Amino acid sequence: MPASASLPNLLIVDDEESLRDLLVSASQSRGWRPVTASSGDEACRLINSDIMAVVLDHLLPDGDGIQMLELLRRICPDVPVIMLTGLNDAETAVRALRAGADDYLTKPFELERLFGVIQEACRSRRQSSSAEVIRDGGIALRSDEVFENARSPSMHGLYKQMKKAAQLDVTLLLTGESGTGKTFIAREIHRLSQRAAAPFIPVSCPALPRELLESELFGHERGAFTGATALREGRFEQASMGTIFLDEIGDLPNALQPKLLTVLQDQEFFRVGGNRMLRTNARIIAATNIDLRARVSEGRFREDLYYRLDVLQLRLPPLRERLEDLPDLIRSILDRIARKRGKESWTITAAAVQLLKCQPWPGNIRQLENVLERATAFTDTAELDERDILPLCESRSGTPTAPTTAVRSLGEVAREAFADAYQRCGNNKARTARELGVAERTVYNLLARYAVK
Q1: Are 430 and 440 contacting, i.e. CB atoms less than 8 angstroms apart?
Q2: Other C-beta atoms lying within 10 Å of the C-beta of residue 335
Q3: 5, 91, 390, 412: which has the fewest Cβ within 10 Å?
């Protein structure tokens, strides 16, 4: 095992011991190797090239966290930093982002939200504008690796559409449920386009309050509001010759929709507090996991803006519609987790794969990644089986399966998984044995045990 595989890769800086303990436990369960600091001075001693991300509190006993952020930036300029603050105001957020924070969260926050932000910051930091790869937690992924081995017709069709869309320099709308990979597709379309050498700039529309989102998109002039002590370029300026990705566009505040419409129509905008018209040549890729037509009907989204965004649309299929890709996805994710942790990859039993196939996957690939991250974090063996997977799965109703009923539920789920496989193979015992990776005699035994006909 490489020496760096055992070294800390996440620095948590907070003077509140209970929060530090909570974040340590939560990060370890997600495959991180955390180290903590209760002050800025201690954080400066711990930061090094092995640290992949920093979670930094706004208020520290030895100074302002934003001042500490500026110091950390000088020591490790490329490490993603997520600022935590108890102050829910735009001024603090602007100061944090201007000082170099990749994102910020207001306490109290959801753990899933925090680690989602950390992962996205890591991806963004590792995304080179001229790169030939996409970085995901430090592991390189290419679109041909993702799609080439896909078995489902929907993914083959999506790949062809994606390559064509990359060459058409028009506004693009990506639709699909949460966790289907819309950010990944947006990055790949940019990489395959003629704009690949220019920046790819992602913006999460629901992640910021309205006042800050307007400044984030369009920039602001010095003195435009309290805390705006210097001119700041917005994302449309930064992406002027590249691509701007507007994630969850359906959550764009009503007050900002006319301004975005102007950019789409005329490629013109004003900074917040500014009176000079600016122009951008950025290509816009927007994404949503909601029905924008329904939002239009409800009066919550402008109809003219919807039609400006919906020039070209790609729909990403949910995981439940492409379960034939699940075995390859599982192997790919397990390999990536292993490389990220500097370990040998895990294998997984056919029965465990079948159990995963029986899940509804409302969170799609992101949920699958989380399940495998947790399963590998707690297993002591090199092979995952049903006992590792079952407590982390959800029932068909979406209710998490209680670990206390795992022994009873395991038999029920195993029977259902086997019956589904047998039916899918046309009640052919030899085909069922090949799909499950077991001897044909085992299929006969299971037919008798589960009374499957």
Answers
A1: yes
A2: 14
A3: 412
Residue 126 falls within a domain, yes or no? no
For the chain, give me the number of helices (H) and strands (E)?
20, 18
Question: End of a domain among 61, 82, 113?
Answer: 113
Cα 217 to Cα 278: distance, rounded to the nearest angstrom: 13
Query: 439: pLDDT confidence band, cut at 50, 70 and 90?
Result: low
Which H or E run contains 386? helix 386-389
- Cα 429 to Cα 37, 412, 426, 442: the distances in Å are 59, 21, 9, 10
**Which sign does the torsion angle of CA 436, 441, 442, 444 carry?**
positive
Q: Which two tokens stand for residue 39?
A: 């002050």
**pLDDT value at residue 70:** 80
Sequence letter at residue 337? I
For residues 84-101, one letter each, b for 16 or more C-beta atoms within 10 angstroms of the residue's C-beta and e for the rest, the string is bbeeeebebbbbbbbbbb
Identity of the highest mean pLDDT range in 21-30, 194-203, 256-265, 404-413: 256-265
Structure tokens at 117: 């932000």
Name every residue whose Cβ is closer than 8 Å to that of residue 94 and which is 6 or more positions away in sequence. 212, 215, 227, 228, 232
8 A C-beta contact, residue 432 and residue 347: no
Q: Phi and psi dihedrals of 92, rounded to 5?
A: -65, -40
Verify that 99 and 24 share a domain, yes or no: yes
From the centroid of its chain, how far is CA 17?
28
pLDDT tens per residue across span 281-318: 999 999 999 999 999 999 999 999 999 999 999 999 99
pLDDT digits (tens, 9 = 90+) for 159-181: 889 989 999 989 999 999 988 88
Contact present, 368 and 319 (Cβ < 8 Å): yes
Residues 235, 337: one domain? no
pTM for this entry: 0.59
Residues 222 and 287 in one domain: yes
Phi and psi, residue 394, nearest 5°: -115, 150
What confidence category does residue 6 fall into, taking pLDDT thresholds of 50, 70 and 90?
low
DSSP string, 297-356: HTTSS-HHHHHHHTTEEEEPPPGGG-GGGHHHHHHHHHHHHHHHHTSPPPEE-HHHHHHH
106 and 236 share a domain? no
Structure tokens that stand for 87 in this block: 């102050």
For 177, list phi and psi in degrees, rounded to 5. -65, 165
Name the residue type at position 399: T
* Confidence band for 135, pLDDT divided at 50, 70 and 90: very low
The amino acid at 371: V
For 67, the token pair is 């001042």
